[in-house]
């Protein structure tokens, strides 16, 4: 229960993976914070309400959360994580889904061949997006590939995934639909009849969640318990000294 992954920059100073890592790594390339390595089961996530937002395991009713092995899958079937500096605002009714955001950074499923490490920051190409409705909340799932993957050059849009990894997108919908059922929850639902939208649509959604994040860290929106402490966002009233960040971790 006490386990936390804190992140540091190249100078050894503590940073927030939610606020202090830029969304863009390059033109058309996004950063992704890996929370859950592929094939693992522990439901790890950026702790949005804790100072500096370390990665920790989700807890329900005092117990650590794990996803079940959903036959025929083993744990998560991609490297799973989030794009930093994005936020699905629970006060924003999404025009595509008719549901409000889930109060977290936007989720990413990375489909490359490497099993990434928890806390790793990778650069990804966005390929498409799935609109999941999780207990009445909009929970976008971005499909992306690590730019360092040997096959990355062959993937430029969602149709490339359909062509080169047949069955993978169908398995993704199946996994998200059923992963809470072993815990006694109903199946999840999807907007757009569970169809994946293309790269351009996905990038537009990511940009809109980035705008909402900026409103959050500049205090234009009340995050209601979300910790916006950061060490790099110059226009943010929550910006603090590296020494203050270190004292919090210590």
Automatic annotation (TrEMBL):
This is inorganic diphosphatase. Belongs to the PPase family. PROSITE patterns: PPASE (PS00387). PANTHER family: INORGANIC PYROPHOSPHATASE (PTHR10286). Its cofactor is Mg(2+). It comes from the Eukaryota. The lineage of its organism: Eukaryota, Metazoa, Chordata, Craniata, Vertebrata. CDD domains: pyrophosphatase. Pfam families: Pyrophosphatase (PF00719). Homodimer. The keyword Ribonucleoprotein does not apply. GO terms for molecular function: inorganic diphosphate phosphatase activity; magnesium ion binding. Gene3D superfamilies: Inorganic pyrophosphatase. Keywords: Acetylation, Hydrolase, Magnesium, Metal-binding. GO terms for biological process: phosphate-containing compound metabolic process. Its EC number is 3.6.1.1. One of its GO terms (cellular component) is cytoplasm.
């Amino acid at each position: 229960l006490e386990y936390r992954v804190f992140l540091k920059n190249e100078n050894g100073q503590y940073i927030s993976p939610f606020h202090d890592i830029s969304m863009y790594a390059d033109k058309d390339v996004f950063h992704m914070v890996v929370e859950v390595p592929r094939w693992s089961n522990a439901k790890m996530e950026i702790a949005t309400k804790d100072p500096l937002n370390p990665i920790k395991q989700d807890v329900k009713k005092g117990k650590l959360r794990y996803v079940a092995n959903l036959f025929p899958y083993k744990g998560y079937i991609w490297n799973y994580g989030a794009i930093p500096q994005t936020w699905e605002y629970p006060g924003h009714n999404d025009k595509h889904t008719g549901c409000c955001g889930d109060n977290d950074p936007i989720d990413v499923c990375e489909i490359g061949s490497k099993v990434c490490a928890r806390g790793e920051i990778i650069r990804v190409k966005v390929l498409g997006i799935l609109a999941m409705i999780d207990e009445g909340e909009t929970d976008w799932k971005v499909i992306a590939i690590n730019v360092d993957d040997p096959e990355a050059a062959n993937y430029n849009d969602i149709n490339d995934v359909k062509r080169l990894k047949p069955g993978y997108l169908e398995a993704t919908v199946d996994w998200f639909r059923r992963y809470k059922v072993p815990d006694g929850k109903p199946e999840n639902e999807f907007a757009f009849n569970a169809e994946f939208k293309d790269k351009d649509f996905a990038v537009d959604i990511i940009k809109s969640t980035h705008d909402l994040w900026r409103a959050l860290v500049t205090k234009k929106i009340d995050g209601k318990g979300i910790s916006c402490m950061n060490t790099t966002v110059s226009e943010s009233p929550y910006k603090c000294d590296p020494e203050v960040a270190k004292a919090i971790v210590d």
